[in-house]
Amino acid sequence: MVRKLITFLTLGWLAACSALPGQGTTPAPGLPRVLAVETFLADITRNITGDRLVVDSLLPDNMDPHSYQPAPRDIIKVAKSEVVIINGAGVETFLAPLLENAGGTRLLITASAGLTPLPDPSGENPQGDPHFWLDPNKVIRYVETIRDGLIQVDPQGRQIYTDNAAAYIIQLQNLDTWINEQVALIPAGQRLLVTNHDSLGYFAARYGFKVVGAIIPSVSSESAPTARQLANLIDQIRISKARAIFMETGANINLAEQISGETSARIVTDLYIHSISDANGPAPTYIDMMKYNVTQIVNALK
Length: 302
Prior knowledge:
Elements: E1 5-6, E2 11-13, E3 34-36, H1 39-49, E4 55-57, H2 72-79, E5 83-86, H3 95-102, E6 107-110, H4 136-153, H5 158-183, E7 192-197, H6 201-207, E8 210-216, H7 227-240, E9 244-248, H8 254-262, E10 266-271, H9 286-301
Parallel strand pairs: 3-4, 3-5, 5-6, 7-8, 7-9, 9-10
Antiparallel strand pairs: 1-2, 2-6
Helix pairs in contact: 1-4, 2-3, 4-5, 5-9
């Protein structure tokens, strides 16, 4: 895999070639085809590109990148892209061989470049916690990095990307204000989070929550807890009187049910953590995803 880093953008020329059929349209001749790995990244990117570029996502809706297994069609998607946008920080562990197998050269934009990660409590991911996107203020950095990368590959679109990014940043700032207003409805002593895995650290730090613990004490949902870790979590929930266990869509709730049975914590099963929903679901955009999650958290804890 060939990689040439451009330090100030943290971009890489990695692996491509031609066309990507995104969103039912065809890009104008000569414009790059863009592939974002996660669905929330694709939505963020579309807010920057507007109608100028076609943006597709590699992962389908409701898919956890921690557990994703690439299919042959993914190699085709990558091969037909000229820009690939990733979250980075170790969440896309499956991607390197996929890029290598696709061949060719393409621009790689790491959306989280320049952000300082929280540590992974399990030590399994040396790059730390990759879930920056659950703090909208950190997504502002995503927007700036993606904007600069698109200008690098398509300088003729500079004004479009600059204007669209500025408008979207205002939406993210408004989202941050809205979240603060909603969180204020929860008494400070009840702002306690128990999660399936360690995914809400940045959200908690921004909005004044305490993370009591996680069923899987790792930033990856693919790890497994020990009996001692589960017993310790049950003790922490009892001591803190945490009201809820928050699970992302698609997560196995068996352990959560066992923990709930030994504590007073209810289970909230449907947070959108790693993916937006389809167009008919409750979280079809990144901003909708955050509002939906916050509403679920507030309703469970206030």
